[in-house]
Every structure is written in structure tokens, then in C-alpha cells.
Amino acid sequence: MSIPAKAVPPRIPPSMTSRFSFLLVCAVLVAALVSLPVGSLIVQVFLPDEQGVWTHLMQTVLGEYVSNTLILALGVGLGAAFLGTGAAWIVAMHRFPGRHLLEWALLLPLAMPTYVIAYVYTDFFQFAGPLQSALRELTGWTREDYRLPEIRSLGGAIVIFSLVFYPYVYVLVRAALLERSGSLMEAARSLGLSQGAAFFRVALPLSRPAVAGGVALVVMETLAEFGAVSYFGVPVFTTGIYRAWYAFGSPVAAAQLSVSLLAVVALVLMVEKTSRGRARFHDSGGRPLVQSRLSGGRLMLAWGACLVPLVGGFLLPGGLLLSMALETGDAQFGVKYLTLAGNSLKLAVLASLAAVLAALLLAYAGRLHPGRWMAAVKRLAGLGYAVPGTVIAVGALIPLTQLDQALVFWMRAHFDYNPGLLITGSALALVFAYVARFLAVALNAVEASLARIRPSLDEAARSLGASRGTLLARVHAPMLSGGIVAGTLLVFVDVMKELPATIVLRPFNFETLATQVYILAADERLAEAATPSLIIVAVGLIPVMMLSRTLNR
Questions:
Q1: Angle, alpha carbons 431-245-504 (nearest 5°)
Q2: DSSP string, 56-125
Q3: If you count Cβ atoms within 10 Å of the first and of the last residue's Cβ in the chain, which end, N or C, has fewer?
Q4: Domain spans of the chain, in order of start
Q5: Would the pLDDT of 536 be above 60?
Q6: Which of 213, 104, 92, 174 is nearest to 541 (CA)?
């Protein structure tokens, strides 16, 4: 069937404009609601600090917070870029026995929470731990005869974070390398370059956006981390925010520290974008990438290079956790853990469903109203992912506390009844903070699926008389099922692992698996912390396996 050259898409009937407007209003309201924590922090910055906490922090520890945070972010970014890019180059550019196993196994550290791996390595490297005990038995040394690096330090945090976060770089760089045209690499080889030189001079520069995107995610995750740096005693912004809120009791100082951390995040992203200038990284197309076969010594080197991050980021800490859980574990394992697991599951289910529904609303509104204005609304809604959990918690607690106080005042005035803290005294505050923090994860998954649906399907459905609701329910929803499920699972696991916001916002006498791990580890009961840690890791393996299958397809 031929299509007329001047055919145009069917016009939207005026009767549907109101529906579009209603959807757009809902999308704007959702974006404004989830961005409320960041907005409340900005407002708090301009309030007077009557206690003088901010002045005290500036004169004493603020400089240390800034320097340690920048060093940590820079060190982890470089470490993750080196490990992730190297592993991606090996599995994407070469053929060798076991490559398909390494392709998905290199993603496993994503299931390991950073605070869990920090506790495990502390136990492994301490004086009475397995490593030093075996070293003394084999050599007969005493404590004065040797000295190992201190794991509970800024350097130790950089190494551990690099081992856990490198998969963010690995995923993006591997995909970028596989998408590059093989003709470019063949042209470089024909000009006399070795495969390694062609990678560094052709493939890697073309993959720079993927490397930069992965490193940006790594840096934001590093800045958001609280449990590991708190346990290691490294003074950074996240630990300073927690102390300002609880030790000093100053919401204004905590908000000012939070905004300072946001400025650091914005600076990192701006520097990377500016460094690109007007460079473009398009591929010219052509034949698929030709992989070279490895054997002998090169094969051993490839396996060794891939096993270093895999063993350090998952296999060794996972094995140590399992050993501690089987040998000692938590004596209270039983009914108490059913309650902890139930609390974690309830929060994860509620937050993941709410986040996916909000993401579906925003993505669908963006499809019906394309343009810069709607794109800005979606960026506003996804801002929370670039904000640490501690910052989100502080920003959410300020307006929610004021709302609770207003509700109490209204109930007393009209019904002479004090309902207590309906929001901040329940799990509602936690769910709100989770949605504000992880909405971007669900939005990216839903938008990726929605972008693959051709607009011609919408036009065909409208020409057959389908309403917008019918179009969504009968055409889009079945095709979006993969993205909806992926977004739900990713948010679910992120909530299961999330620690800083949970610590700040959890109601009284309300604990989760994550807070149980933190409490036991803070009391140096590392063996007992192995049990809840293993449960969190086991749950985290589900989306990692799904991500691996998606990448292979």
C-alpha cells in the first residue's frame, strides 16, 4: 500500500485536549512533590542559624569534609573507571574460554551493599581476623614484625567502593564497544596500530560518553554512601549531615551541609560536560566488531584481570559472609527476622509500586507532550537520584514535620483530638523519601520501553476510535510490561539496600534488615551481621541476573 507524500498524522480532537491538560497537571504535581525535599533544603539555607552550628562547622571540620569528599569521589571514580573499562574491553573485544561466564559474573558486585562489604573486609583484615591469624601461623611473626594497611581509612574506602561500583562503568562501556563499527578498528589495524593501540586511540575515545556516564553514576553513589564511611570513621559530607542533625540538633546546619554537597555533585557533572566541549562521538556504521581469540599467556592475563574485581567485589566477601553466618550467625535469628524481613519487604513493595506508577505518569505525559518544558519537568522529578539518601531524608523531614504539626493543630482546633505524628511517626515518610530518591531509576526503565513503541501505533489506534485510556491499557501497557517489571525490581532492590534515609526517617522501634546490619556492625558484632547481610545480597541478585540477560540479548 502506498502512502501519499503529503500525508500528515491525524489531528488531536479538541475534546482530548482537556485530557492532555489533566495528565500534564498531574505530571507537574508529581514532579513538584518528589522535588520537595531539595526545595525545602534550599529554603532552610536562608534561615538564621541561631545555634551557631554552621559557623562552628566552618571553623572546624568543613574543610576536612570538602577535601575528604573530593578525594573519595576522585579516587573511586578513577578506580571504577580503570576496573570497569578494562573488564569491558576484555570481554567485548576478545574471544576466549569462559568469556560468556565472565560477561554476567562481572555484574555480581552490584548486589553487594557497600556497607556490608565494608564490615566484611574489616573483620577479614583485623588482627584477630582470618588473614592476619593465618599469616602469623605460617611465619611465626608477632604483631611487631609486620604491618598491614589500615582498611578503616580513606584509602580503604576508595578500594572497597571501586570494587563495588565498577559494574556501572562496565555495563555502559561494554555496550558502547559492542555497538562500535568493526570497520573503524580494522582501519586502525591496517594503518599499523596494534589492537591495544587501536583501542586506546580509536575505540576508547569514541566510548568516552559511556565512560563518563558510568563514572558519573559511580561518583553520585559514592557521595550518597553513609554506612561504610560512617563505620570507617571517615569524615565526609554524609556523616557530617547526620551529626549536625542528631548530635547538634540543628536542621539548618544539616540543610546547609546538604546544599553544599549538592553543589559538589553539580560541580562534578558540570566539569565533565564542559571538558567535552563540542566534541561528537558518532559512529559511522559498518561491519560488526571482530573479536580476537586469546590463548596461552594472554588468556591467563585476561582471566586474572577479570577475576580481581570479581573476587574482590563479590566472591570473597560473599564467601566470608556465608562462613560467618554458618559458624556464628545471629542468635536471634528466627521470629525477629520475620519481622525485619516483613518491614523491609513492605517498604520495598510500596515504594517500588509508587515509583513505577509515578514514572509511568511522567513518561506517558512526556510522550503526549514532547518538548523542552516537559523534559525539564522529568529532569526535576529525577533530581533525587543525584542526591544522597541522607540529604533526601533531611529535606523530606523538614516539610513533613511541619505538615504533621499543622494536622495536629487542625485536629485539636476542630475535634479536640491529638492524632500524634501521622506522617513522620509512620512508614509514610520513608516511602515518600524512597520515591523521591529512586524515581529516576523507574523513569529510565519505563521511558526506554516507551521509546521503542512507534508513534504510528498511536496514530493507528486513534484512527480506529480508541480513546487515550484504551490506547494505554490495550496497546501501550502490554508493550511496556518489560520496562515496568525492570523498573519495579530495580527500585525494590535499591530500597532493600538503602540505609541513610532509613536510619534518619524510620519510626520509633521500627527496624529493617539494612538497619539491623548497621546496628550490629556498629556494635562490632560483625559475625551476627552476616545473617541479615546475606538476605539483602540474595535479594539483590535477582535484578542483576535480569540485567545480565538483557545485556546478552
A1: 25
A2: HHHHHTHHHHHHHHHHHHHHHHHHHHHHHHHHHHHHHHEE-TTHHHHHHHTTGGGGS-HHHHHHHHHHHH
A3: N
A4: 38-113+154-277+288-324, 328-553
A5: yes
A6: 104
pLDDT tens digits, residue range 433-444? 999 988 888 887
Residue indicated by cell numbers 554458618: 326
DSSP-derived 3-state class of residue 345: helix
- Residue bearing cell 498531574: 26
What number of other Cβ atoms are within 10 A of residue 411's Cβ?
15
- Give the predicted TM-score (pTM) of the model: 0.77
Domain 38-113+154-277+288-324 has CATH 1.10.3720.10: yes
Task: Name all contacts of 155-160 with Cβ < 8 Å and 24+ positions apart.
Answer: 155/75, 156/121, 156/232, 157/72, 157/76, 157/118, 157/228, 157/229, 157/232, 157/234, 158/71, 158/72, 158/75, 158/76, 158/79, 159/79, 160/114, 160/117, 160/118, 160/121, 160/228
Taking the C-alpha atoms of residue 190 and residue 184, their distance in angstroms, rounded to an integer, is: 10
Distance CA 169, CA 38 (A): 27
**What is the reported pLDDT for 126?**
85
- Is-contact 250 53, C-beta < 8 A? yes
Task: Give, in words, the CATH class of 328-553.
Answer: mainly alpha
Task: List, in sequence order, the alpha helices (H) in 227-334.
Answer: 227-232, 237-246, 251-276, 296-310, 316-327
Dihedral in degrees, nearest 10, Cα atoms 511, 515, 519, 522: -170
Closest Cα partner for 375 from 16, 24, 19? 24
* Residue 296: per-residue pLDDT: 79
> For residue 387, which amino acid is it?
V
Give 91's Cβ-side CA count (13 Å radius).
Answer: 29
Contact between 403 and 423 under an 8 Å Cβ cutoff? The reply is: yes
Which residues, 6+ apart, have CB-to-CB distance to 168 below 8 Å?
Answer: 80, 84, 110, 214, 217, 218, 221
Amino acid, single-letter form, for residue 218:
V
The conformation of residue 382, written as its DSSP 8-state character, comes to G
Q: What are the helix (H) ranges across 328-424?
A: 335-368, 372-381, 389-415
Q: How far apart are CA 118 and CA 122, in angstroms?
A: 6
Residue 165 CA to residue 36 CA, distance in Å, equals 28
How far, in Å, CA of 499 to CA of 502, rounded?
5
Domains 38-113+154-277+288-324 and 328-553 share a fold: yes
pLDDT at 376: 81
